[in-house]
Structures are given as structure tokens and as C-alpha cells.
Amino acid sequence: MRREPPQTFADYSPLLFPAAMLTIFFVVPFGTMIAVSFFQRQQGGFYTPAFVFDNYARFLSAFFGGVLGFSMMMAIAVAICCVLLALPFTYLLTRMARRVQIVWLVALLSILSLSEVIIGFAWSTLFSRTAGITNILVALGLMSEAKALTPSFAAVLTGMVYQAFPYTVLVLFPALVRLDPTLTEAARTLGASPLKAFFTVVVPALRNTIVATLIMVFIFALGSYLLPQLLGRPQHWTLSVLITDQAIYQSNMPFAAAMAVFLVLVTLGLVALTVIAGRKGEAA
Amino acid sequence: MTSVFRKFYFFLIGLFLALPLIVVAGVSVNQKQTLAFPPQGFSTSWYGEIFVNPEWRNALLASLTLAVLSAALAVAIALPLAWFLWRRVAPWANIFQLLGVAPFTLPPVITALGLLTFWATAGFYGQPWTAVVSHAIFFVTLPLVTLSLGFTSIDRSLVEAAATMGADDRTIFRTVVLPLILPYIVSGYAFAFVLSLNEYIVAYMTVGFTMETLPIKIFNALRYGYTPTMASVTVLFVSTAAVIFGLVARFGDLPKLLGAMASDQK
């Protein structure tokens, strides 16, 4: 049976349920959010329909600029750390036995599926004074006294890298599996060391994949909404945390919605860049 | 030499990934309600606490119910869509594929906020079933991607043979397509189930004030200080995820599944 265009109305019927669900519960909520971003906020957490730009005008404050700048900087730092750690790891993983690969993939998937609440709790425990990593250093005689390592910028960064690392590996995995092994073999035959072959053959061959991965991890890190709150101080809050905070605790839905719309625009712009980077990769 | 270097590198990565979980596992067996590592004394009572303490038990039940139902709904949305896209030539219908992948690609807080404003406007805010629908939409990407992959792997000549022998669409679907696609349905369901179990922000923004799922319960408990039950729940969650993904790997082709998933997300 070949694929054929739908002939009668009945041919479209399988599409009805999915199309209705996605339209009602994704497109409409998205539209509602955009509408709310133009609404007028009332005292006490309510809002009334209006068409004002007040919520967007608040972006122009120094505070918001600071948060936006910090969020971007944080996400860039996470993306770079993750790709640096994950690229050699994934490359070596794809060259291992299938059974070993599967064990690592199961472990990575399990960590990737973990709730941010749980990751935040686990790292705050590891960085705590009473149960933390500093106790090991004290036991080894490297430190005189155990101390708490959170809240701090380094704690937020570590937590976010931990969260994004499995994602980075899984994004890189398919591209590295498909990488032609004869490329490195040729380099080795010509006398390059494994390390040199990696940097002069593998990395350049994957340039577009690396760019696309950096952008995807960047988007992933932008979405982190709890770790900066659990492991950092208020100055370490990112845009996602601020949106949650405005929506839930400050009850300022219009402002939260306006920030979310802004975040969507940033994300979509970056997705477009990823697609372009991917296209170039195919053409080359 | 390089092999030693490689082993060391993998060991370090493994340590980085495992360390927080090892410490949490250690903390979870403390005798008293203290946050201490290495653990002081040994007790499994904090694991019993999940099932004995009514608050934790209710949160566990809420999370399980939510995950079972929302993953089923996600598959129910994804299956007809993936089947239609495979069976028919209808380029415009790809827009629904795009809509199905979008909630997972955008930062989660956006989907959560969209659903919050939607349920509040519609007047259903806080109803437990809204969380089921919200999670189903949020995670529909996972069954959609695994099922699309499953359909492309079906040999069309099998379907053609059935059609030549007089089977209609319904019979073909039941006797040929469904048995071939079943492993992909199961893995899609498994992915959606595990992620729904762990999901915090969408659940919190839709039903956070009326019911507690386990991640919400852990977060609320964190704000009032520490209890070792959080640690035992964490260990329970990590093991559940590892067992489920281990089963998917055992009965399916995990590397292939992941190879396709990541390329589809781009």
C-alpha cells in the first residue's frame, strides 16, 4: 500500500483527536499567554483585559537588563562546559562495545529524567556542611574544617552542568555514531596521535554539529527554573526563575507572561540559527 | 597509555554523575533525622516513611496516577497522528508534528505559564484532571518521536501484501501495523511516564495549590528544612528511572531510539 493523499473526509478522521488536543491545549494556551502579557495588572493578583505595553516597558529597567545578561552568561557558560566535557566523552563512548554503551545510556537517561527539585536537593546535600564533600577533604587532611559551599555561583553552575550534561551527550550521540571511522583511521595511518587526530579531524568534521549542540544546550540551560533558586543567591536568579517567581509568588501574571513571550522569541531565534547551522552541515 | 587515560576520564565523569546520588543514598539511611554523611547508624525506616506517612503516600499516589494517565493520553494523541503522517501524503499535516514537538523544545516554564493562564481563564484552575491534560501535552513529544521512528522502520511491502489479499485499513492496522509498532508504543509510554513522574514546574503551576505530587512535596519540604524522606524518595526515583530505561534497553534498540530522538529535536 503506497502513501496516498486523503480522499474523503473519513480519511482525515485519525487526525481529529490529536489536532483538537494540540490546538485546544497548546495553541490556545499559548495565545492566552500572549494576550495576558498585554493585560493591565490590578492590585491583589488580578488582571483585567486591556492592551497596554506596561509589562514590556518594564524590560527597560536596569534590574531586568541585569537578570537577562546574567541568564545569557550563565547559559553560555553551561553550554561551553557541557560541550567541552561531553564531546570527547561521547566520541569515546561511540567507539565502545554496544553493551557498555547501553549501560552508560541508561544511566544518562535516568539522570536526565530526574526532577530539577531532586537534582537541586542532591547537590545542596553534597555542598552542605554536615554531609558534604568538604567532609571528605577534611578526612583527607586537605581542609581544616568542613564548610557549606552553597549558596554560590559555582554551586549553581555545577548543578546546571550536571543537569545539562546527559542532554549534551544524547544530542551529540547520533552525529558521532554516524561519523565515518575511516577518517580517524586515515589520520592515524599518516602518523597522527589519537589526541591529534581527535582535534585535527574529528572536531573540524563536526564543526556545525558542535555549533548546533552549543545552541541547544544554551536553550536547555535557559529553561532551568529551580537550580539557581536552590543553589544560588537572588543575584544568581535567571529569567526562568524570575518568571516563576512573578507568576506564583508576586501574582503578577501579565509581567510574567510578557517575560515568557520574550523568552519564546529568544528561543525561536536560536532554534532558527540551529536549523541554519544544520543546513550548512548537510550542504558541506 | 591512552586506554589508561580513557578509563580515568570515564571514571571522573562517572564520579561526577554518581557522587550526588551516592551522598543522597548515604543520607537516606541515617538512623536519626540528621543530614549527615557518612551516615550515623543504619536504618531503612525513611524508605518505610514514604508508604507509612499519609502525606508522602498521598503524594506518591498522586504522582503515579498522574504519570499513568498522562502518559496514556500522550500516546493516544501521538499514535493516530504518527499513523496518519505515515499513511497519507498531507504535507500541511506536518504542522501538528511541529506542534507536538514544540512544548518540549521551548523552556518548560513557557508551557507551564501558558497552561496556567489557560486553565485560570477557562475556570478549571486547580482541578486534578487539568494536570493530566497538561502533562500529556507537555510530553506528547516523546511518544510522537518514538512512534514516527517506529513507523518509518515498517517494511511497506508487508502492508502492501496484506492490502493485496483484501485487508482494509482497519484490519491491516490491527494485524500488521500494531504488532510491529508495539515496542515503540511501549518505549514512548515509558519515556513519558518517567518524565511525568519527575516533572515539577507544569504540575506546580497547574495544580500546585490543590494537590501535591512527589516533586512538589519534596520542594515544599525543602523550604521548611530537611527530612531524610526526601533522600529516600530521590533514591526511589533514580532506581525507578534506571529500571524502566533498563527494560527499554533490554527489549528495544536503545541506541537506535536515541539516535533518532536527538536528530528529530533539531
From TrEMBL, chain A:
Its main location: membrane. InterPro entries: MetI-like, MetI-like_sf. Keywords: Cell membrane, Membrane, Transmembrane, Transmembrane helix, Transport. One of its GO terms (cellular component) is plasma membrane. Pfam families: BPD_transp_1. This is ABC transporter permease subunit. The keyword Cell cycle does not apply. GO terms for biological process: transmembrane transport. The keyword Hydrolase does not apply. It comes from the Bacteria. The chain crosses the membrane at residues 12-39, 59-90, 102-123, 153-177, 198-227, 255-278. It is a multi-pass membrane protein. It is found in: Cell membrane. It comes from Rhizobium fredii. Residues 68-274 form the ABC transmembrane type-1 domain.
TrEMBL record, chain B:
It is found in: Cell inner membrane; Cell membrane. Residues 60-248 form the ABC transmembrane type-1 domain. SUPFAM superfamilies: MetI-like. CDD domains: TM_PBP2. Pfam families: BPD_transp_1 (PF00528). The chain crosses the membrane at residues 60-86, 98-120, 132-151, 172-195, 201-219, 231-251. This is ABC transporter permease subunit. The lineage of its organism: Bacteria, Pseudomonadati, Pseudomonadota, Alphaproteobacteria, Hyphomicrobiales.
